[in-house]
Amino acid sequence: MSWDFPSYGDGLPHDLVHLVVEEALGIVDGFWGLVDGGVEVTLMDNQSTLVRHGRPLVSAPGFDASGLRRAEDAVALVAGMAPRPVGVSAAALTVIGRRLAQLGQQWRDLEDGAAITLRYGGGPGGPGPVAGEPGTGPTPRGGG
């Protein structure tokens, strides 16, 4: 799968931060786990919406959004917009911070149209997300 991240300047795209955070915290049922499981992101009523089989995921019977909420809470923490969630260690935050700083520098150094290639290796029973390994598609800067 190829995923084009929209860019709003020099900051890392939100979905790319999700990949790093979900990897470091072992969250396999967050945003990238859902995408790996066939969920798509579309615009509905001018809002990004998670969709499966053409229908919003939140309206699917039995949908459990706890992994996605956990991932969003952790991303908000990394962005400095939330307190540390239960179960997120200072050591994990250090790993996340280093990885984001490294990717941030790579992102800023990219020329328009160039790419960073990352791979998601999660999913049920899978090894979890693996950010920064050669993989499934480009992350173009400025092209989204």
Q: Could you give the count of β-strands? A: 5
Biggest beta sheet attributes = 3 strands, antiparallel
Strand content: 5-15%
Q: Give the N-to-C terminal Cα separation.
A: 15 Å
Low-pLDDT stretches are 123-127, 133-141
Q: Give the helix tally.
A: 4
Structural class given helices, strands, pairing? alpha+beta
Specify the oligomeric state: single chain
List the helices and strands in order: HHEEEHHEE
Radius of gyration (CA) equals: 15 Å
Proportion in helices: 25-40%
Arithmetic mean of pLDDT: 77
Please state the overall shape, judged from the principal axes of the Cα atoms.
globular
Describe this entry's structure for a reader.
This protein is of the alpha+beta class and 144 residues long. It has a domain at 14-30 and 65-140. 35% of the residues lie in helices and 15% in strands. It has 4 helices and 5 strands, in the order H-H-E-E-E-H-H-E-E. A 3-stranded antiparallel beta sheet has the order 1-2-3, with no helix packed on it. Strand 2 (47-52) and strand 3 (55-56) form a beta hairpin. Helix 1 (14-25) crosses helix 3 and helix 1 packs antiparallel against helix 4 (90-109). The protein is globular and about 40 Å long. The two termini are 15 Å apart. 26% of the residues are buried.
Summed up, what is this model?
The chain has 144 residues and is an alpha+beta fold. It is 35% helix and 15% strand.
